[in-house]
Amino acid sequence: MKKHFLLLLSTFTIWTVSFAQDALPYKIYKSNGKSVTYDKMVEDLGNKDFIFFGELHNNTINHWLELQVFKSLQKIHGSNLALAMEMLEADNQLIIDEYLNGTIQERHLLKEAKLWDRYKTDYHPLVDFAKQNQLPVIASNVPQRYANLVYREGIVALDKLSDEAKKSIAPLPIQVDLTLPGYADMIKSMGGGHGQGSANPNNIAYAQAVKDATMAHFILKNAGKKIFHLNGAYHTQNKEGIIWYMNQYRPNNLNLITIHTVEQDNLEKLLDENKYTADYIIVVPKDMTKSY
């Protein structure tokens, strides 16, 4: 009887493990569509100076994976690692630093910094891990009010800002190539760009470019440590956006790598349309429940 029970238990364990593997809610592919394990991806990431994780903002698997990658990179690099985030605006850097070094409490951070609505669930675990391990957190994004200014009045409107305000933006003038597919598609998808409050059909792309340029600027400003940057997938898709500006600001010796997230009905094969969008592509189920 004991022998039969152990055999049944062993069979159940094998079935459970197999089911867990089959039901994994994501799959990782290299750019050419070849599947790869998490460990192999992390091994590659660990050899890079700049790691970009392009997320779907409302996907909980993305946020969990970001934390796992951050923890894995910390095991490799120890204190020689920094977290940088689109979700934090550059003019809040002082508040973030004061929270990390214990000068202020988290309630002050939550009240005074311009945090995203789902910060507590989506990004707090990463910031908390950085705090526990004394790792810097870089607020890389342009203040939203300046991106909105560009959307309303055009990129030349940045020239009228004070010198203090310009400290939170990439150095002016910011060059923008509207022929890049990402920006061109953005203008096209917005019906020519004539959105509410914008008279110039190109302003939606200019506003996006100011974000991309500013993120690239603050990432490079903090170069020296390995930098793990979180951003919306569109900001690094096809190595445009932030990556294009990284290459403009430092055209040589950029040791970077990108991760891009896509949704598919089937995880077992990377669709051709999703190939080569990044060095690694994480596929998540299209029917996964959204966080908002």
What can you tell me about this protein's structure?
The structure is a single chain. This protein starts with a helix and ends in a 7-residue tail after the last strand. Helices cover 43% and strands 16% of the residues. Strands 1-7-6-2-5-3-4 form a 7-stranded mixed β-sheet. By secondary structure, it is an alpha/beta fold. Helix 10 (203-221) packs across helix 11. It has 11 helices and 7 strands.
User: How much helix is in the residues?
Assistant: 40-55%
Strand/helix succession: HEHEHEHHHEHHHHEHEE
Poorly predicted ranges: 2-21
Helical/strand content category:
alpha/beta
Biggest sheet strand order reads 1-7-6-2-5-3-4
Main β-sheet, in a few words? 7 strands, mixed
Count, helices = 11
What is the CA-CA span between the terminal residues?
52 Å
Radius of gyration: 21 Å
In brief:
Helices cover 43% and strands 16% of the residues.
Please give a handful of descriptors for the protein shown.
disordered N terminus, globular, 292 residues, alpha/beta
Task: Give a topology summary.
Blueprint: H1 2-22, E1 27-30, H2 38-45, E2 50-55, H3 60-77, E3 81-89, H4 93-100, H5 106-112, H6 119-132, E4 137-141, H7 144-153, H8 163-166, H9 181-189, H10 203-221, E5 226-232, H11 242-249, E6 256-264, E7 280-285
Parallel strand pairs: 2-5, 2-6, 3-4, 3-5, 6-7
Antiparallel strand pairs: 1-7
